[in-house]
Amino acid sequence: MSELKQFLLPDVGEGLTEADIVKWHVQPGDKVTINQIIVEIETAKAVVELPSPYEGVVAGLLVPEGETADVGTPIISVDVGADADGGLPSAPRGSTSADLVPPPPAAGGEGGEGGQGTAGGVEPGIHGVLAPKDEERQSVLVGYGVKPSATTRRPRKAAAATSAPAPATTASATHRPATSAPATAASTTHRPATSPPATSATPGDGASVLAKPPVRKLAKDLGIDLSRLSGTGPGGSVTRDDVQSAARGQEEAKLADAGAPAGAPASPAHVAAVTAVAREERIPVRGVRKHTAAAMVASAFTAPHVTEFLQIDMTETMAATARLRSLPEFDDVRVSPLLLVAKALMVAVARHPVINSSWDEDAQEIVVRHYVNLGIAVASDRGLVVPNVRDAHALSLPGLAHALAALTETARAGKATPADLSGGTITITNVGIFGVDTGTPILSPGEAAILAFGRVKDAPWVHEGQLAVRKVTTLALSFDHRIVDGDLGSAVLRDVGAMLEDPLRTLAWS
């Protein structure tokens, strides 16, 4: 007997309100088991794989790849009572099945308000752990803690139905219905499912075509009917290039009808409109970049930043780095000067603990941490991320080297978890790898200091009373002036510089 269940997008972080659907690992008609990975989502902190809370047959993907969904939004529908061998003939692989979504149960019914109950009176937990069913909240992955009504988003306008007429008791969906499934379900308020080709829409019905608002505005300005275009974007969505190509074709057709020779130029006004848009590109701000932007603005305008600079002779540290590379303890890891910079910073933290603090605005207290979760700023395809090495102060030098290597590799591959990206206490940003001398770094929220390590270059330097060519770099320390006074910030920067000029000091001060 068929029984449909919806999986609501959970909060996989600390109070996250939305996430982007990156990649679906299942399609309608596929059989899924509990805790099978079904989708990758990108939150404000990381890319996360979500397991299925149900066992059954996928009835429909309710949010297509590339779309943003609010926490608590239904993203997939699973038929937990379907015959696994027979599947769902009404929802062939690759189609959407939003019309198969059942209406939410009444308050107090199975699954609580919003309806996502599970059979047997239990709700699935992450990694297969089952927790007792709670009638007062949504059933989601254990530990994710979806907050009811955490976000409010304006619903999209209802689109004209293109499938077979629904019974009189069936409410229309607020998204574009799938053309391959019968309209037998009640309305939903989630984002549109994967749309059929745009050419299948009713002529002139631009609202039923999958396209972003800027693309719709461009089409309106250029007089292009979106419903007549075949989208080349994700899920068949119409892109700017599709609209601009249609505009050029439309102008050429007009010239041909007017008897203009083939290849004649389009009208100046139309060419200007298309060319002006083609010279610009709009990139949606979402995921990690959106979170980073908000965090940096909040940090810059909350904590009073002070940045101090120190130029130092790194010749001895570069020699020590080369010596470490030859030791068997470091055979399987790449040793860089950053390792000794990190070690020097942790020794400086031990000598000046207040530099490793945070400001508690509500309690009006300075929280001094007697452990170091060392953040390392990493440039990735998803934007700047700052994963941290937990309890870095307790690691040996080889252990720290392996931890730094693993951390940066994971972050650059886009596999850092929300846990990796939260809880840092002090940060290093290695701007030298970009070939620049230094910068004025902005504090990571909740931290009192960040150290910028510039490029190491050959430069004239007075060494032992003689002018010589030495390995020189510039350090920059930004700190929260509410917590760190100038003398403390200067002492920390001076200590780090002293240990890098003479690595033996690191041993003496440890």
Tell me about this structure.
Helices cover 23% and strands 21% of the residues. By secondary structure, it is α+β, with helices and mostly antiparallel strands. It folds into three domains: 1-194, Beta Barrel (OB fold (Dihydrolipoamide Acetyltransferase, E2P)), CATH 2.40.50; 198-278, E3-binding domain (Dihydrolipoamide Transferase), CATH 4.10.320.10; 287-509, Chloramphenicol acetyltransferase-like domain (Chloramphenicol Acetyltransferase, 2-Layer Sandwich), CATH 3.30.559.10. The strands form six sheets. Strands 11, 14, 17, 18, 19, 20 and 21 form a seven-stranded mixed β-sheet that branches. Strands 1-8-6-3 form a four-stranded antiparallel β-sheet, with no helix packed on it. The chain has a four-stranded antiparallel β-sheet with strand order 5-4-2-7, with no helix packed on it. A hairpin with a 5-residue loop joins strand 9 and strand 10. The chain is elongated, with a radius of gyration of 29 Å. The N and C termini lie far apart (68 Å).
